[in-house]
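Quick one:
INPUT:
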C-alpha cells in the first residue's frame, strides 16, 4: 500500500489534534435530526450477501474471559493482542484473565483501535460482544497505539496487513494442540471492526487490503481516508456508526465512505454523538444503543440469525437516540 494518499490524513490530524482522540465537546449549534428508520432501497448495494449457513446464536449472555497474545509481523512490527471470549462461569462481573473457554464454537471479530488508543480503552464494548457469543481479538498497533517508541500516523496504511496477520495467527489456534481456544473458533465466520483510525483500517480490509476471510464489517467513527473506496471481493454487509457532532473525523467523511459501499449496509447516526463517548463510556445511554445494535448486526452476519436482522432497527432507534439508514 502506498504512502502518498495519506498526505491529507496527516494534515487532518494536525488540524484536528488527533484522529483517534476521544472528544467530549459538543457543537450546540447543530440541530439534532429526528429519529427515523429508512427502509431498504433497491440498487447495486442490495446484492445478496455471502453469509455462512445459519446456526443458532446464543440466547443468553455468558461470562467473559481475557487472554494476551504476543504476535508480530516481522521483527519490527510487534502486535500484542488482547482477546475477549465467552468463558465458563456465571455471566456478569468483570472479565476474568485466562478463564476457561465456554463450550461451543464462536465467530471471530478483529477489532482495531484509534490513534493513541489501546484495546483496553474499548473494553466495555468488546466485552459486550464476547458475552453475546463472539471471540474478539484486538491488537495494539506498533506505531499508532499509546506510548509506542515511535508514533507515526502514516503507519495506518500498514495496519490492514497487520490485522490480517493477527487473524491468521488467531485462527490457527483453533487447530493447535493444547491451546485453550482449540475447537472453539468458528473460522468461517469472521468480521472486522474498528474505531477512528481503526475504522480506516477496517475499511482498508475491504478495499486495498481486502481480506477474503471477512464476511462483515463495523466502522465506528471512521472514514476511507488513505485506503480508498474500491470495495472488492464477495459481498460483506457493513454497519457504520457515526456521531453528527464528531469534531475529529467528520460525519460527512464517514457518510461519504458509507455511500460507496456496494453491499448490504446500514448507518447508525447519533445526532448528539461525539467522536467516542458512546463507544467508550458504558454509562452513556447511547452506548447501550450502539452495543445492542452492533450485537444484533454480528448475530445476523456471523450466526446467520434472521431474527437478529429484524430486531436491529428497533435496537438502533430505541429511546430516540439514533437514526438508522437501513439498506441491509
Amino acid at each position: 500500500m502506498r504512502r502518498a494518499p495519506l498526505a491529507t490524513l496527516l494534515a487532518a490530524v494536525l488540524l484536528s489534534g488527533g484522529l483517534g482522540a476521544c472528544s467530549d465537546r459538543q457543537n450546540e449549534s447543530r440541530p439534532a435530526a429526528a429519529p427515523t428508520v429508512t427502509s431498504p432501497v433497491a440498487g447495486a448495494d442490495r446484492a445478496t450477501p455471502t453469509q455462512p449457513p445459519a446456526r443458532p446464536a446464543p440466547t443468553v449472555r455468558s461470562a467473559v474471559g481475557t487472554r494476551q497474545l504476543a504476535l508480530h509481523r516481522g521483527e519490527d512490527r510487534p502486535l500484542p493482542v488482547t482477546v475477549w471470549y465467552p468463558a465458563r462461569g456465571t455471566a456478569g462481573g468483570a472479565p476474568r484473565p485466562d478463564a476457561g473457554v465456554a463450550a461451543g464454537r464462536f465467530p471471530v471479530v478483529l477489532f482495531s483501535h484509534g490513534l493513541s488508543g489501546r484495546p483496553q480503552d474499548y473494553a466495555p464494548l468488546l466485552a459486550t460482544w464476547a458475552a453475546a457469543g463472539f471471540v474478539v481479538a484486538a491488537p495494539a498497533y506498533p506505531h499508532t497505539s499509546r506510548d509506542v517508541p515511535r508514533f507515526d500516523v502514516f503507519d495506518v496504511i500498514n495496519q490492514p496487513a497487520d490485522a490480517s496477520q493477527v487473524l491468521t495467527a488467531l485462527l490457527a489456534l483453533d487447530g493447535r494442540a493444547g491451546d485453550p481456544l482449540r475447537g472453539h473458533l468458528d473460522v468461517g465466520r469472521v468480521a472486522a471492526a474498528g474505531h477512528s483510525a481503526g475504522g480506516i483500517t477496517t475499511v482498508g480490509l475491504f478495499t486495498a487490503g481486502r481480506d477474503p476471510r471477512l464476511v462483515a464489517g463495523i466502522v465506528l467513527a471512521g472514514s476511507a481516508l488513505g485506503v480508498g473506496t474500491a470495495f472488492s471481493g464477495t459481498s460483506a454487509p457493513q454497519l457504520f456508526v457515526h456521531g453528527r457532532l464528531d469534531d475529529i473525523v467528520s460525519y460527512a467523511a464517514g457518510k461519504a465512505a458509507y455511500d460507496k459501499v456496494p453491499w448490504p449496509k446500514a448507518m447508525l447516526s447519533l445526532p448528539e454523538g461525539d467522536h467516542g463517548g458512546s463507544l467508550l463510556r458504558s454509562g452513556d445511554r447511547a452506548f447501550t444503543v450502539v452495543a445492542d445494535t452492533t450485537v444484533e448486526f454480528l448475530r445476523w452476519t456471523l450466526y446467520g440469525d434472521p431474527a437478529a436482522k429484524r430486531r436491529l432497527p428497533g435496537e438502533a432507534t430505541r429511546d430516540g437516540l439514533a437514526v438508522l439508514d437501513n439498506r441491509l
